[in-house]
């Protein structure tokens, strides 16, 4: 925070009209909406340097502090908001719950500290919340679309009880504003030879992970004679994917409408069951999931963590990904769909020749290991894995993508790698390559440059693993995590029939990565095996068929139980 204050003081001494402050503020809000958080942060600092009384700029700075991996920045920003507008204190307290959830942690100790402080803040607010009047609860409604617990499961800790606490707060705020969303709608009558009405709610009808993992495959392959699909796209986007989706549905409703409009529209369709492919990545989806829209409500693993919501009945997972004790990690009833529970829908590969190693700036003759996940998937306790592999392989490079890295977040991550490699008497700069954010063409090109893909530990790749296998047949090394979110690649490789890439522990993970790096013939053998076995994964319909069976069964059981 000290550097921000110095920047503000320095800029104040420069000439500039205060009208520019609001221009910078508006620019920051636009960049934030576009997802360009680095530009938003820079613009916010310009606006506050010119006018430190801009409460909305301080508020957005606090919201972006997780991206910038700075608890101190959040605390200072939220303090300034309350100083400027004391009447916002309750809302700021709500936002402050998540200030310890960061994109990159300094070390393992900070992970523990931030988890415990988040837990304490959440429980403290929950106690306060119980004593709020109905009007005070309603006053929190505008705040719940600003911040959520998306980053919580990336800490690698148990989340069930905390998500349940947060989900209860969310549900009670929303039902104080929309009381009609509190009661479970009755199940519509079941008539012979008439399809069941199934709703699907998502904001990701575009080239997004959720589209590729779940939406496209489910929409395409679900039996249309048996299931009448009502799709609710909670954004006004219109692209090739949304056009494809409409061809598979009975009703497709799209738009950036208020929550009340969506609540009335969906309930009016008298659905038998509603399905949320993910909960946590879009605020409108999250708020709708916290209300009762249909008699049976289900979620899946587009964001693989329990919702904690009292409105969510079932979590649709994968039998190949869940640990034996998976049930205890969810507030929902766990359903293990067959195989992966999905059918992956890869996008057509770009017709241009892939970008080469030389064009990327990679070492031409080194063994290239891909570490192509978002920064928040990398926990500090596993940094030593890369240094250990480097020490044993020698001539190698680890490729990280700077997507979602602010300057401070990247600096934190690089310092961690510096320390891990120094412990092996190595300079991390000789081994770690930081690639610019990549579009689809760039990402698939990078896959073709890799010798080995290293799965992130305790938060496994799903879409990225499938794309590495599909586009480049690159060997993917993994080890099963404690939770389902750390076992996606384990399930994929099991179905693919290459269990030799699944390590039972970290030591074996390193050894498999080293063996693949040192033995080019073995790598080629694994690539050929992957290519032969790809249809086992990419043509598998067992997950969709088991989803159909689940929906038939659960609707029938509900009808019997409520008759």
Describe this structure in words.
By secondary structure, this protein is α/β, with parallel strands linked by helices. It contains 22 helices and 12 strands. It has a 7-stranded parallel beta sheet with strand order 3-2-1-4-5-6-7, covered by helices on one side. β9 (396-401), α16 (407-422) and β10 form a beta-alpha-beta unit. α1 (2-12) packs across α3 (37-50), α3 packs antiparallel against α4 (55-63) and α15 packs parallel to α20. The longest helix is centred in the N-terminal third of the chain and has 23 residues, at 108-130. The termini are far apart. The model has no long low-confidence stretch (mean pLDDT 95).
Q: Write down how many β-strands occur, each being a DSSP E stretch of 2 or more residues.
A: 12
Strand proportion? 5-15%
Distance between the termini: 61 Å
Q: For the CA atoms, what is the radius of gyration?
A: 24 Å
Global outline: globular
Q: What structural category arises from helix and sheet content?
A: alpha/beta
- State the helical fraction: 40-55%
Biggest sheet, strands in spatial order? 3-2-1-4-5-6-7
Oligomer: single chain
Biggest sheet details = 7 strands, parallel
**Unreliable runs:** none
Mean pLDDT across the residues is 95
The total of helices stands at: 22
């Amino acid at each position: 925070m000290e550097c921000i204050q110095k920047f503000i003081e320095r800029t104040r001494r420069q000439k500039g009209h205060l009208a520019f402050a609001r221009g910078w503020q508006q620019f920051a809000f636009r960049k934030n909406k576009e997802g360009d958080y680095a530009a938003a942060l820079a613009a916010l600092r310009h606006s506050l340097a010119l006018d430190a009384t801009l409460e909305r700029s301080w508020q957005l700075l606090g919201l972006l502090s997780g991206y910038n991996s700075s608890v101190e920045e959040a605390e200072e920003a939220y303090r300034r908001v309350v100083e400027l507008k004391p009447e916002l204190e309750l809302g700021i307290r709500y936002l402050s719950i998540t200030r310890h959830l960061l994109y990159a942690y300094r070390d393992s100790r900070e992970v523990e500290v931030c988890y415990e402080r988040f837990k304490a803040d959440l429980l403290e607010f929950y106690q306060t919340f119980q004593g709020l009047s109905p009007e005070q609860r309603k006053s929190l409604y505008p705040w719940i679309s600003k911040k959520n617990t998306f980053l919580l499961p990336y800490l690698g800790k148990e989340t069930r009880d905390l998500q349940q606490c947060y989900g209860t707060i969310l549900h009670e705020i929303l039902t104080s504003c929309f009381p009609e969303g509190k009661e479970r709608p009755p199940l519509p009558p079941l008539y012979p030879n008439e399809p069941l009405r199934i709703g699907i709610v998502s904001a990701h009808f575009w080239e997004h992970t959720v589209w590729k993992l779940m939406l496209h495959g489910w929409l395409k392959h679900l039996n249309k004679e048996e299931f009448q699909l009502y799709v609710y796209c909670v954004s006004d986007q219109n692209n090739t994917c949304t056009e494809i989706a409409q061809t598979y549905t009975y009703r497709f409703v799209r738009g950036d409408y208020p929550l009340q409009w969506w609540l009335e529209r969906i309930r009016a369709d008298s659905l038998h069951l509603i399905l949320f492919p993910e909960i946590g990545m879009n605020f409108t989806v999250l708020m709708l999931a916290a209300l009762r829209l249909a008699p049976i409500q289900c979620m899946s693993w587009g964001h693989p963590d329990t919702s904690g919501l009292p409105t969510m009945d079932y979590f649709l997972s994968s039998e190949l990904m869940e640990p034996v004790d998976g049930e205890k990690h969810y507030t929902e009833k766990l359903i293990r769909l067959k195989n992966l529970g999905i059918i992956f829908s890869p996008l057509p590969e770009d017709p241009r020749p892939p970008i080469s190693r030389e064009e990327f700036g990679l070492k031409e003759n080194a063994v290239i290991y891909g570490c192509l996940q978002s920064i928040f998937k990398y926990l500090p306790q596993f940094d030593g894995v890369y240094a250990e592999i480097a020490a044993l392989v020698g001539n190698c490079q680890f490729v990280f993508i700077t997507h979602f890295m602010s300057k401070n977040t990247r600096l934190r991550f690089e310092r961690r790698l510096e320390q891990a490699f120094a412990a092996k008497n190595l300079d991390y700069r000789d081994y770690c390559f930081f690639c610019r954010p990549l579009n689809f063409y760039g990402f698939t090109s990078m896959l073709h440059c890799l010798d080995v893909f290293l799965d992130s530990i305790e938060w496994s790749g799903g879409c990225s693993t499938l794309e590495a296998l599909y586009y480049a047949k690159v060997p993917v090394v993994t080890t099963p995590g404690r939770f389902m979110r750390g076992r996606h690649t384990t399930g994929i490789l099991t179905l693919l029939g290459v269990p030799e890439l699944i390590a039972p522990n970290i030591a074996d993970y390193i050894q498999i990565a080293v063996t693949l790096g040192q033995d080019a013939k073995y790598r080629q053998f694994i690539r050929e095996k992957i290519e032969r076995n790809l249809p086992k994964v990419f043509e598998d319909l067992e997950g969709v068929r088991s989803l159909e069976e689940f929906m038939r069964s659960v609707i029938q059981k509900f009808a019997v139980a409520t008759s």
